[in-house]
Write a structure and sequence with these properties.
By secondary structure, this protein is an alpha+beta fold. The chain has two helices and six strands, in the order ββαβββαβ.
Length: about 70
């Protein structure tokens, strides 16, 4: 299921990330890697605030759809 469909405050594990090399590198730089635990904490104007490791990161909905959990 894409991260964009996960209920708020539900911890999930990243299983796959769809995208080209540029997308994959960008997501990796942000900490979104296969096996990472993430938790959507807030939806804000088409963006999703995600808790990952010790950070909160905003990603847009199209990016959240590329992250399969």
């Amino acid at each position: 299921m894409p991260l964009s469909l996960v209920d708020l405050n539900q911890e999930v594990i990243i299983k796959f990330i769809r995208g080209n090399d540029k997308v994959m590198k960008h997501m990796n730089d942000l900490g979104f890697v296969v096996g990472a635990v993430v938790k959507p904490v807030q939806k804000l104007g088409g963006n999703l605030i995600v808790a990952i490791k010790d950070s909160r990161i905003a990603i847009d909905e199209s990016m959240a759809r590329k992250i399969i959990v």
